[in-house]
């Protein structure tokens, strides 16, 4: 005697298709998970800022539980510090390369301006994070402190140029702050404007900086009103 299949045990007997098995999710290594969390945190910090971003939001967007975030970074402060350190290192590297002392001074100004704009274009989220103020950034480095370090490098280059033109080198530190600050603030403006093209912006920066530097007076003073 043939026993009819039970529809509850055999879906095919009831004319139902077997439910497909869900593909097993590939498990990330600890390093891959850490990088994924950093990418997620970087995007959120750039979009919302440090204070407005929560561990819950980071975990939800990364599709992990909150303990995973704490396990890797100890909290959003630890994650933010790592992100800021990476961005500072990346921007320092591109600017240091642009400030090679063997180049002609005008080429150095051109390279520095274009290097910053290149960085902003390719690392927009990172630059947004750097220019934002945060309690955590005070301990790990800020955009202003980075610009100060770059100005110190430029100071030596300007001092050599001043000496070759018979100008006093004591004002080189001040001019270095002016030059680097001008480029940095223009970069912050271009972050949102994105027009004109970065090469045109860099050309205008050099036009102002170089043509101004080319006509420096030994003892500048303001006219009496």
Automatic annotation (TrEMBL):
Record GO terms (molecular function): DNA-binding transcription factor activity; transcription cis-regulatory region binding
Keywords: DNA-binding, Transcription, Transcription regulation
InterPro entries (UniProt xref): DesT_TetR_C, DNA-bd_HTH_TetR-type_CS, Homeodomain-like_sf, HTH-type_TetR-like_transc_reg, HTH_TetR, Tet_transcr_reg_TetR-rel_C_sf
Domain HTH tetR-type per the UniProt entry, residue ranges: 31-91
SUPFAM superfamilies: Homeodomain-like, Tetracyclin repressor-like, C-terminal domain
Gene3D superfamilies assigned: Tetracycline Repressor, domain 2 (1.10.357.10)
PROSITE patterns attached to this UniProt entry: HTH_TETR_1, HTH_TETR_2
Transmembrane domains' residue ranges: none
Annotated region of DNA binding: 54-73
Any one Pfam family match given in the protein's UniProt record, by short name: TetR_C_46
Any one biological process term the GO annotation gives: negative regulation of DNA-templated transcription
Region (Disordered): 1-30
Classification via PANTHER family: HTH-TYPE TRANSCRIPTIONAL REGULATOR RUTR (PTHR30055), TRANSCRIPTIONAL REGULATORY PROTEIN (PROBABLY TETR-FAMILY)-RELATED (PTHR30055:SF227)
Protein name: TetR family transcriptional regulator
């Amino acid at each position: 005697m043939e026993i009819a299949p039970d529809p509850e045990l055999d879906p095919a007997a009831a004319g139902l298709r077997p439910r497909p098995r869900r593909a097993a999710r590939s498990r990330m290594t600890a390093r891959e998970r850490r990088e994924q969390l950093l990418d997620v945190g970087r995007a959120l910090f750039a979009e919302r800022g440090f204070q407005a971003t929560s561990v819950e939001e980071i975990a939800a967007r990364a599709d992990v539980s909150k303990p995973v975030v704490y396990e890797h970074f100890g909290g959003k402060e630890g994650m933010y510090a790592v992100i800021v350190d990476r961005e500072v290192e990346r921007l320092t590297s591109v600017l240091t390369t642009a400030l090679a002392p063997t180049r002609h001074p005008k080429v150095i100004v051109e390279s520095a301006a274009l290097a910053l704009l290149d960085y902003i274009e390719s690392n927009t989220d990172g630059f947004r994070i750097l220019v934002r103020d945060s309690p955590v950034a005070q301990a790990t480095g800020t955009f202003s402190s980075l610009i100060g370090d770059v100005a110190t490098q430029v100071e030596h280059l300007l001092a050599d140029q001043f000496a070759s033109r018979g100008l006093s080198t004591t004002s080189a530190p001040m001019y270095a702050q002016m030059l680097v600050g001008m480029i940095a603030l223009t970069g912050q403006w271009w972050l949102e404007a994105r027009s004109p093209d970065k090469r045109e912006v860099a050309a205008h920066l050099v036009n102002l900086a170089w043509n101004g530097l080319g006509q420096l007076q030994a003892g500048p003073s303001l006219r009496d009103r």
